[in-house]
Design goal:
Layout lengths: L8 H22 L3 H14 L10 E6 L1 H7 L6 H13 L4 E4 L11 H10 L3 E5 L21 E3 L12 E3 L1 E3 L4 E3 L1 H11 L6 E2 L7 E3 L2 E3 L18 E3 L10 E4 H6 L11 E6 L7 E2 L13 E2 H18 L5 E2 L2 H21 L3 H24 L2 E2 L3 H33 L5 H9 L1 H4 E2 L2 E2 L2 E13 L1 H30 L3 E6 L2 E6 L8 H31 L6 E17 L4 E6 L1 H11 L14 E6 H7 L3 E9 L8 E9 L4 H10 L1
Parallel strand pairs: 1-12, 1-13, 2-3, 2-13, 3-4, 16-17, 23-25
Antiparallel strand pairs: 5-11, 6-7, 8-9, 9-10, 14-15, 18-19, 20-22, 20-23, 21-22, 23-24, 25-27, 26-27
Length: about 650
């Protein structure tokens, strides 16, 4: 069965990144990431630079716990509320909002309060829209002008945090305006600004030159949020800084600066903790009681934002379209995939992933400061998920490649060379298979003399023991000199110098040839020692012939996908074999003195220089060769020159 061609690393990384991106998008659509996204939104609100001060156009008249204790009663009697309104009107407040329910009279002072509410258009009162008929609270009966009545319902997200403002609500028949919008419109009337439909889309509200686009169910980090009515995101531009305020007792006794009131929007409301009209905001980090904000302060923030929208052009936070958000998330998935593709160590992976997360957060924060709420948690999750899975896939893929390489090379090279091969695997692998290489190598062939008589004398078990002892000793010499044993064939050994790492310079090729001849000489010395011991043990001795040739070859894997072998082929290897078997009676090995005959080709002699003592055999025609080959016999190492010998003795 043929192995299916594996995807390239890049294609696999892109596919994994795409799958992770779609998985994160599915989690986002399911709402699993909404809480984290809203928490990131709150964090960004707290991180941004705040306005130097609260809106100077707004002041709050607060009813504190001390005010209630001083009066000794609650609800606030009508005469107290009437007195407070009269003082504010007398000091020329531009708009007054009463954030206290007065659907039922609280005498005494009811008639006085009714006359003030009926007479002065600067006073706006509240009603509660509520959930269904039983949940609402009516406005005071004295106020019949609908433009002076606004609902004070507050939209609270899951988790109890206020992030959205309301401008309009309807009951299916009538449309109602919010308390904050009524106050803002009343203030802006003196500036010559009135709410109007957007010229390009009449369904949208425009204040001044700025259009307020309603919040959509999937804007920002929200997922299918209830956006009934006309909602927008609150910016809490002043953070948790308190607006200018006057407590009720100071107002009634005249102990306040009249400039705080003149030409301002004044909201009258309760801040006493016992009344339970407090809400959490993005600035309530731990949702502790001391971190909440009074309802009247929430309305003040909404009024302030509407005034800044109309007068300063401060548009509410905008969001990407669904397809734009999905594209943003997938881009970071691909970035994570490329990161995982390049990661080579846990340290690099951790550093690069952390850098990617910081980049996502910084880019999202920069766009946040420019008025755009873009997803931050989904792209971060996609980045990390894609990077982790691609890294895992790469590790698995590299483990398979390492196993394949080690299976091919582990029998032929030392551990150090194997590790070098693995570090430079891109040079050896292509599409998960060993890449063919054109190399310049030095091939070394050995064969024993008189092997048949030895086999007859020792018998099968003795022969294998004797032969393994020989092969083990020769393999050690090959390893010491950097050769690669290509094959054991009976009593023959095929050794290649110059693989698997390609030699790129003439000096490297010469070093391989030198190593091959040094290896052959060392093998001869070792065989002489073996012969001495075998003779003492009464076992047969032997000689060996060696052929060495330098030239081009091709290396690669040969076989099926299930079973393959590292091979080196070419005329160079064949020529080395012919040199070993050339005229077996020429220079017969002496088992006790010189048990190894070494013949080399002229291409090897040329790169050896004068390192060895050699004798010319002649130009001969080898079997299977169309051209003659110059053959030389290696007699031994060349004697060092006098200066070099003296230097060697001094070093010793």
């Amino acid at each position: 069965m043929r192995r299916r061609r594996a995807l390239s690393p890049l294609a696999a990384a892109l596919l994994i990144s795409l799958l992770v991106g779609f998985g994160v998008l599915a989690l986002r659509v399911a709402g699993s990431l909404e809480s984290a996204e809203l928490a990131a939104y709150d964090w960004y609100l707290r991180l941004r630079p705040l306005a130097p001060a609260t809106d100077p156009r707004i002041v709050i008249v607060t009813m504190t716990e001390r005010d209630i204790q001083k009066m000794g009663t609650w609800p606030l009697p009508d005469y107290v509320l009437a007195e407070a309104l009269q003082i504010l009107l007398r000091h020329e407040a531009r708009a007054i909002g009463v954030d206290i329910y007065r659907d039922v009279p609280i005498p005494p002072g009811t008639d006085r309060l009714r006359r003030i509410l009926e007479a002065d258009p600067r006073v706006v009162v509240v009603m509660k829209f509520g959930e269904g008929p039983a949940g609402g609270v009516q406005a005071p009966a004295a106020v019949t002008d609908p433009d002076r009545v606004g609902f004070n319902d507050v939209v609270v997200d899951r988790g109890g945090i206020v992030r959205r403002g309301l401008l309009f609500l309807d009951d299916g028949t009538n449309t109602f305006s919010s308390f904050a919008l009524r106050l803002a419109v009343l203030y802006l009337r003196a500036e010559g600004i009135a709410p109007e439909p957007d010229p390009r889309d009449p369904r949208l509200l425009r204040l001044g030159r700025t259009t307020i686009r309603p919040l959509e169910p999937n804007d920002g980090g929200y997922v299918r949020v209830d956006t009934r009515g006309y909602q927008f995101l609150l910016d809490f531009n002043a953070g948790d800084t308190e607006f200018a305020s006057i407590d009720l007792a100071s107002l009634l006794t005249g102990k306040f600066d009249p400039r705080l009131v003149r030409n301002k929007v004044v909201l009258v409301g309760v801040t006493a903790t016992s009344i339970k009209d407090n809400f959490y905001t993005p600035y309530s980090r731990g949702l502790h009681p001391e971190q909440d904000m009074s309802g009247v302060a929430i309305h003040a923030h909404v009024v302030s934002q509407l005034l800044r929208t109309a007068l300063d052009g401060a548009a509410p936070m905008r969001s990407l379209l669904d397809w734009q958000a999905a594209t943003w998330i997938l881009i970071w998935g691909f970035a994570g995939g490329l990161l995982g593709l390049r990661a080579r160590s846990p340290w690099w992976f951790g550093l690069a992933t952390a850098g990617g997360l910081v980049t996502v957060g910084v880019l999202a924060f920069i766009t946040f400061l420019r008025g755009w709420w873009i997803p931050v948690i989904p792209p971060a999750a996609t980045l990390v998920g894609a990077a982790a899975l691609v890294t895992a896939h790469q590790s698995y893929r590299e483990a398979l490649q390492r196993a394949d390489l080690m299976k091919l090379f582990s029998r032929h090279v030392s551990r150090e060379v194997a590790e070098t091969i693995w570090r430079e695997r891109e040079e050896f692998l292509e599409g998960g298979r060993l890449r063919s290489q054109a190399l310049v190598v030095t091939a070394l062939f050995t064969d024993l003399t008189g092997f048949t008589p030895v086999a007859e004398k020792l018998g099968p078990e003795g022969l294998m023991e004797w032969l393994n002892e020989y092969m083990d000793a020769m393999a050690r010499r090959v390893s010491e000199h950097g050769g690669v044993i290509r094959q054991y064939a009976g009593d023959s050994i095929v050794v290649i110098f110059g693989v698997p790492v390609a030699r790129r310079t003439e000096a490297e090729v010469a070093r391989d040839a030198t190593s091959a001849v040094e290896c052959a000489l060392a093998m001869g010395d070792t065989l002489r020692e073996l012969n001495h011991r075998w003779r003492a043990e009464g076992r047969p001795t032997t000689g060996m012939r060696v052929g060495i040739f330098t030239g081009p070859a091709v290396a690669g894997s040969l076989g099926s996908a299930e079973r393959s072998e590292y091979v080196v082929v070419g005329d160079t290897i064949n020529t080395a074999s012919r040199l070993e078997s050339f005229d077996k009676e020429l220079f017969p090995p002496d088992h006790d003195i010189a048990p190894c005959r070494i013949l080399i080709g002229e291409t090897t002699l040329v790169v050896l220089g004068d390192r060895f003592k050699t004798e010319a055999v002649g130009e001969v025609s080898l079997k299977g060769k169309a051209h003659t080959v110059g053959i030389y016999r290696v007699v031994g190492r060349a004697a060092p020159i006098v200066g070099e010998a003296a230097a060697n003795e001094a070093r010793q």
